[in-house]
Amino acid sequence: MSYTKFVAPLVRANSGSIRKLRISPARCRSTVASTKTREEKEQQQQQKTNGCTVVEAAPVELISQSRKATKAPLSKTHIDFENTQEAYKSKGNIELLRSLLVFKLCTFDILVDKNKELMDLSRKLLGQWMFEKLMKMTFYGQFVAGEDHNSIKPLIRKNEAFGVGAVLDYSVEEDLTQEEAEKKEMDSCVSEAEKESPGMCADHREKKYKAHRQFGDRRGGVISARTYFYADEAKCDMQMETFINCIKASGGASNDGFSAIKMTALGRPQFLLQFSEVLVKWRRFFNFLSAQQGKSQMTVLEQKLELEQLKESLTELGVGAKDDIENWFTGEKLGLSGTIDLLDWNSLINDTTKISNLLMVPNLQTGHLEPLLNIFTEEEERQMKRMLQRVDILAKHAVENGVRLMVDAEQTYFQPAISRLTLEMQRKFNREKPVIFNTYQCYLKEAYDNVTLDVELSRREGWYFGAKLVRGAYMYQERARAKEIGYEDPINPDYEATNRMYHKCLEYVLEEIEHSRKANVMVATHNEDTVKFTLDKMNEMGLSPTENKVYFGQLLGMCDQISFPLGQAGFPVYKYVPYGPVNEVIPYLSRRAQENRGIMKRSQRERSLLWKELRRRLLAGQIIYKPVY
Fold first, then answer.
1. CA geometry: angle at 429 spanning 428 and 431, to 5°?
2. Which residues does residue 466 pair with via DSSP β-bridges, in sequence order?
3. Whole-angstrom Cα distance, residue 479 to residue 500?
């Protein structure tokens, strides 16, 4: 079922016609093994050199999108991340000293823990004007590009001159108290039906996908992600306009920029919670049927249900009448092979799920479809439709402005719905080139399954796969919530397991790029080992940076020793560029201070490289250094 079928009718529909629209929950995917043999990989590994100087890749003609394209011979590119002259050539001496000061301040626990109180006190003692001057000389100047889309253009142009692009992110946040945040969350995540009859609705709901007041403030334990709380539909429209302005600014500031959005800014989170539960329960029902056929021990990609046996099981369970079930397997080549896999499975419910009764779930005990909630108010139905409309509008603006749109990942109880909506955007807008990028959090146990399934769906349907790989932003919150409420911890057991998962997902996408040239990946990481891993794999596979299939991403003000050497060696690399008025980005700056505390305490590397470059300049007589570009 295409995104056009999924969203376009909703955009056109009035409230009276919504009940007649049909929607497809979690469309899933499977994988194809790499075409490269083990012998070829070993041979390439033996040929790999170990140099560390920065060299330019030999100019090559862009490789055709065809799988049959012949690779031109490539020089292997190696980056020297110890070369401070290259890493900091875009920075003046004052900027290097500011970085050293800010990073050192981030190592003091009392300053970080009380950073908001100290900033409030500074504002009162110094006055607004002096406070803003102080912030622009320190934390704001380090991590934020400017106050509006005009003031950030000089920084963006300077970074581009040194090979580094921009992912624009308007970083203004509400400064809510914990009590205010909890109240907003509970009001927006609980339906009217649940409020009126909490006991009746609780029978059908899973604890993970219900709002819990003790975790109502979603900012708790999160230091590297912005949080939106629902107020009303007008506020969502305002946030959509902010994203549109950001997209336009990105299009005007650079030729190949990115812009980032969050789904929770675009609608009532109740819809994301409930839709996520539906998608997970349908997936679980597939696993239940797979177990009936003795295939539960197979990987998710190998599980193919025998069609005739499946029809009998569905009829016996009472999921539908025999004739209805027979009709589900007609059209669109469904079941022609005599089997149904996870990709096919979701097609079965295209015609059984209406927008006004979207949240129908299978009961594993009876097999019958039951409503997750018995009643939806007209306003709740309109809110579902408006969220989809806003997503569609943003995607269209991204296309019109030549900007790629990255949808940020969020908490696991929202993420199935977020990924599903993002996938539907990709199916519509990624037909000719990658416009929409989904984000995969590799600290999740299911990250590899999610990546491989989505890649296979893009293969089957012929659109461009776009992914941003991150380790994840909600680990402490997710672990605490799972433990207290009582469901399985979705996070990998330790940091090393997350590293392995990240590299596993990354290698899979790189192999898909090698195989088809229709996949694209943003390696969003501050981990130097992961960057080196990516470069080694690109060298092994003959992937040239000039193809613009593999991107790198870091936050503004952090890890310049990674970003700028990559950019100057010809790799597509981007900084996440936050902007907004000083007073309104204080929550963002607070998180950066907390994040840098952890990074700086674990490693002195970035500060030592900054000191190394300052000493080099002083010994070379470059007391006053200005970047030339």
1. 85
2. 520
3. 19
